[in-house]
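Appendix B. Raw example, untouched.
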Amino acid sequence: MTPTKTLLIVYHSMTGGTRQMAQSACAGALAAEPAVTVRLLHATQAHAADVLAADGYLFATPENLAAVSGQLKDFFDRTYYGALDQINGRPYASLVCAGSDGQNAARQIARIATGWRLRPVAEPLVVCTQAQTVEAILAPKHLSELDLQRCGDMGAALATGMAMGVY
């Protein structure tokens, strides 16, 4: 079957947690729906042309100082106006790897997506690592199988909805 839709997953990760989340979502999407092409790009590699070429989006970030990471913010800064008014109504979801809360990072993504006039199709998936000390915050992250499964399910649901034309 020839893929008919493209899901773009854009992520940034400092300690590996968000990368694991994005990779699990990618794997879930690929396993669930062969009719969807899945592109997994680090935030520094993604450009406006990638955004324009996609039919749906999954944005993944660590929570840094109660905000999206600088590199994901840079991605949005570099691509926002190049895609504005050209991707209206396309579906999106978000993943946040947080030390304690993650809600502000999720809200920031939602505000940017609202400006792009994207359609949210799932609540933000926030994985809290409970990292509260400098050492724990900076340490490599190893997410639980349950959390990675939740990310895979998010990718699968997004890809399936896109393939079915629900989103």
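End of appendix B.
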